[in-house]
Amino acid sequence: PITKHILAAGVAAAALMGVNAASAQEVIKFAHVVAPNTPKGQGAEFFKKRAEEILGDKVKIEIYPNSQLFDDDKVLPAILRGDVQFGAPSLAKFGKWTKKLQVYDLPFLFKDMDAVSCFQNGEKGQELLNSMSGKGLTGVGYWHNGLKQLSANKPLRAPEDAAGLKFRIQSSDVIAAQFEAIDAVPQKMAFSETYSALQTGVVDGQENTWSNIYSKKFFEVQDYITESNHGLLDYMVVTSTKWWDGLDPEIRAGLTQAMNEASDYANGLSANLTAEQRQAVIDSGETEILSVSADDFAKWQTAMKPVWDEFSGDIGQDIIDAAAACN
Ligand code: LMR
């Protein structure tokens, strides 16, 4: 009975310390801002499932979707503090940490998602996973969402239709410049605040993927969506370099395997989910979809493309060239 009591006390103490009695259990939090029924939401759940299958009780993965834990501007400092272990902000949200990832925001850089995969899997794309190592952050994978569409409460057929309108944007200087290039007014704002800003008219429009427009119901508060495919919204899954390098090698190997599988899964899923959710937006009848003629597409491109030169010094022309070569 005495040993039993000692054991019980040990279990209680271990529980208080947040470790499993049998062996130390690594509790790993993954925070993101989108809904579970999105490529990122599904990727995170797949990562949890595989990591727990591969490593058993050694790890417990907790997923926090929908900005429950942190908005994207807070998640990176939280990773460095150790309050959360993984985040997957959009590539548009790393401007304070590295200028190189701005390449992904350049308008009309990628003609389709195959070109995006080509660049991300190539030498330069892989190098960019380490572009924040000096700041203590390691990229462990890229996850697709998709190409962005423009929405507003008036039809945007050509660039001049957007003049004077306010657009909610992600916290990216490139995206701000893109809207300024068409004489619109960009307003940086957290994803979690976007629906209500559109609903109350604080902003007139926004740009996002079909998946985000659908899962956050932006289509219910926007009368028109222009199918412009003018830019990319993808993610980098990031963790703390110090935490990652300090992990038990067996756990790190298991997490690496689970993350690689989750990246393949999310990237394989995104095209179908995009098509499905685009159709659901159309079927809702709540908004009008405007397709873009070849002539108008060229006009948008001409109006927005000067942004490339503005940022090529910060990004590096070699990186831009490698991305463009994937088309
Ligand atoms: C946004 O802020 O619009 C996106 O970055 C949200 C997301 O994570 O897809």
Secondary structure layout plus pairing:
Blueprint: H1 2-16, E1 26-31, H2 39-55, E2 59-64, H3 72-81, E3 86-87, H4 113-121, H5 123-128, E4 137-152, E5 166-169, H6 173-180, E6 185-188, H7 194-200, E7 205-209, H8 210-215, E8 224-227, E9 232-240, H9 241-246, H10 249-284, E10 288-291, H11 294-304, H12 307-315, H13 317-324
Parallel strand pairs: 1-2, 1-3, 5-6, 5-7, 8-10
Antiparallel strand pairs: 3-9, 4-7, 4-8, 4-9
Give a short summary of the structure.
The protein has helices at residues 2-16, 39-55, 72-81, 113-121, 123-128, 173-180, 194-200, 210-215, 241-246, 249-284, 294-304, 307-315, 317-324; strands spanning 26-31, 59-64, 86-87, 137-152, 166-169, 185-188, 205-209, 224-227, 232-240, 288-291.
Strand fraction band? 15-25%
Give, in order, the helices and strands: HEHEHEHHEEHEHEHEEHHEHHH
Helix fraction bin: 40-55%
Largest sheet: 10 strands, mixed
Identify low-pLDDT runs: 10-22
Organism: Thalassospira profundimaris
Signal peptide: 1-24
Family: Belongs to the bacterial solute-binding protein 7 family.
GO biological process, one term: C4-dicarboxylate transport
Outline the structure in words.
The protein contains 13 helices and ten strands. With 327 residues, it is an alpha/beta fold. Strand 5 (166-169), helix 6 and strand 6 form a beta-alpha-beta unit. Mean pLDDT is 94; it is low at 10-22. Strands 1, 2, 3, 4, 5, 6, 7, 8, 9 and 10 form a ten-stranded mixed β-sheet that branches. The longest helix is centred in the C-terminal third of the chain and has 36 residues, at 249-284. The protein has helices spanning 2-16, 39-55, 72-81, 113-121, 123-128, 173-180, 194-200, 210-215, 241-246, 249-284, 294-304, 307-315, 317-324; strands at residues 26-31, 59-64, 86-87, 137-152, 166-169, 185-188, 205-209, 224-227, 232-240, 288-291. It is globular. It binds (2S)-2-hydroxybutanedioic acid (LMR). (2S)-2-hydroxybutanedioic acid (LMR) binds at residues 33-34, 90, 145, 170, 191, 208, 212, 233. This is C4-dicarboxylate ABC transporter. One of its GO terms (cellular component) is outer membrane-bounded periplasmic space. Keywords: Signal, Transport. Belongs to the bacterial solute-binding protein 7 family. Pfam families: DctP.
